[in-house]
Structure formats: structure tokens, C-alpha cells
Amino acid sequence: MRTRVQTVLLLFGVLAVAAFAVPLLLFTASDRTQQLVLARSSDLDRFASLMDRAAGNGDTSAIAAEARRYTQLYGEPLVVTDTRGHPVVQTGGMRAADPSVARLIDAALRNQSAHPRAALRPWSRGHRMFATPAGTGTQVSGAVVLRADVDT
Q: Does the keyword section mention Kinase (predicted)?
């Protein structure tokens, strides 16, 4: 009799812990994803404004230097293109001609941003791709694509 009661109590204890742990883990995954998206979105916006400025004055040296420094510092490659999809700067081995990058560039040149939708779990590995158009309003002056590492 005693072992049956202990088994039932143990089962209820495990269920109670799981009932609290699962929502907490889901919230943590959602929060981690949101932090990554916000951080990389601000980086994308910075490069988009630099590309917009470069498209206006024709000088791409500032965005090229900034992109190379970013990749050296954070280890995350990026591609910046003009309105025709020609690369202005490519860093970290990522190329505009790669099929996954080319799809994101095409979407960004149609004024469509791309951010990862799947939540980052503690065991998530690999990378997530981000893309944003450069320009203001409906006037697109280029595209920025960033590959963010999620291993850390």
C-alpha cells in the first residue's frame, strides 16, 4: 500500500514540475529568439542606412569598411547589394550568388524583410538568415543579408 501511495505522489510531483517547466522553457525560447531578432534587426538597419547613403552619393567605401569590421568583430558574414542585385560588399565567405542568399536578396529588393520564425531552443545549432531592404518607404536602394550564428 505504501509503495502505491508513494508512486502516485511521485507521479503527481513529476506532473507538477513538468506543468511549470514546460511553459517556462517555451517562454525562454521565445525570449531568446526575440533578443536575436532585435539585435540583428538593428545591425541590418545600420547597414541599410549606410547603403542608402552610398546609393545617394555613389561612395561605397564606408559601407564596405563597416561590413568588414562587423564580420571581423562578430564573425557573422553579410552581403550588401545595389538595386540590381549586384554585390556592393560580401564578407565572411557568404556570396550573393548562393541560392539561399539570392532568394533573400530578391525578397528584400521587393521591399520584404526576412527574419527567422522558428523559436531558438537551447539545442539550436547552425545559423539564421536575416534580410532587409535598404532605402526609405517604397524607394529601395539595395538589400542587406546577414547570417547570424546561433551556436553561442
A: yes
C-alpha distances in Å from residue 40, one per residue of 2, 22, 71, 76, 78: 56, 27, 13, 10, 11
Mean pLDDT of 89-99: 93
Tell me the CATH number at 68: 3.30.450.20
Domain of residue 98, residue span: 2-149
Q: How many domains does the chain have?
A: 1
* pTM across the whole model: 0.81
Residue 16: count other Cβ atoms within 10 Å of its Cβ.
Answer: 10
Q: Tell the burial category of 63 from Cβ atoms under 10 Å away from its Cβ (0-12, 13-18, 19+).
A: buried
